[in-house]
Amino acid sequence: MSIVENAQSSMLSRQEVKPYLKRKDWPGLLYLAVHFSMIGGTGYLVYVATSTGWMVPAIVLHGLILSTLFHPLHECIHGTAFRTRWLNEAVMQILGFIYIWPGLLFRYDHALHHSHTQIQGKDTEMAIPIPRNLGDYVIYVSGLTHHWRNLGWLFRHSMGRILPADEANVPPSELPKIFLEARIMLTGYVLILLAGVVSGYWWVPIVYYFLPRFLGEPLVRFFRVAEHVGMDESLDMTRNTRTTLTNPLVQFLTWNMGFHGEHHVYPSAPFHQLPALHRKIGHNVHVAKGGYLWVHWDVIRNHLNGFSLATARKIEAL
């Protein structure tokens, strides 16, 4: 019996967990419709704010909302966003293109994160492993390493090349699909830029898409730090993953991924079932004492090197 199966059987029986694993189409469609409506709304704010002092804040806000499309993409790569398989796969590809993260590659890469959570050298998505310092934290939250890695994937894979470490995570039969995915995505971005240049509105894709997408990534990194950083580097899912309770808006934008402990115990549970699952097994997983700001303060103060207690006290006094 695997680590995951052991954790699952110790919390709920197969019969008990069955209702929490039921997938549906309508919650995902509803969430996606509202999510894209919010992106459209912030995009309109950028339009209204053009040539005013509010333009930069509008672009940043637009980017923050745009970046949270990571969460439905994450749900799709698990195959749990929708009950209908083709719908799940189609949305995965669309979101992967918008978010600039190849969905199929993400699926294989993410599988090892669940199999080897918080194990250095095996967890492909380990955020800030030990030893870690404030510099590592700042670089990770900035999103710079994320963009560098993803662009590297796109250019490398579009040429039919893949790093050995990445190739080890992908079945050989899937490599042609990985390369095709990168070529289609890269072609799409070039066409978007060319359309802007040819039309004379070269700034439109920059202002409404590429720049906001770049500026908004720190928000997703901010959420992702809370999932595992500062937790045990072991296979114990009740100690290596953190659930962070938050307000309804953030809960919506993250597609309930604040319930991350529950997600790791039952990765096949769809996002719309996670709040109910938390009420059932939340006492068995690690739940943060406060919200996301509290978690980050705890990480900075207690789990990073190079951040003095004296500095922490000065900030607390502010």
Key words describing this protein structure:
318 residues, mainly alpha, two-stranded parallel ribbon, 17 helices, 1% strand
SSE diagram, text form:
Elements lengths: L2 H9 L2 H4 L8 H24 L5 H13 L2 H8 L7 H15 L3 H13 L18 H9 L1 H15 L5 H4 L7 H25 L3 H26 L13 E2 L4 H6 L6 H6 L8 H8 L4 E2 L4 H11 L6 H9 L1
Parallel strand pairs: 1-2
Structural commentary:
This protein has 318 residues and is mainly α. It has one domain. It is 64% helix and 1% strand. The protein contains 17 helices and 2 strands. Strands 1-2 form a two-stranded parallel ribbon. The longest helix is centred in the C-terminal third of the chain and has 26 residues.
Secondary-structure content class: mainly alpha
Number of extended strands: 2
Percent of sequence in beta strands: under 5%
Main pleated-sheet profile: 2 strands, parallel
Low-confidence residue ranges: 307-315
Shape: globular
What's this entry about, in short?
Helices cover 64% and strands 1% of the residues.
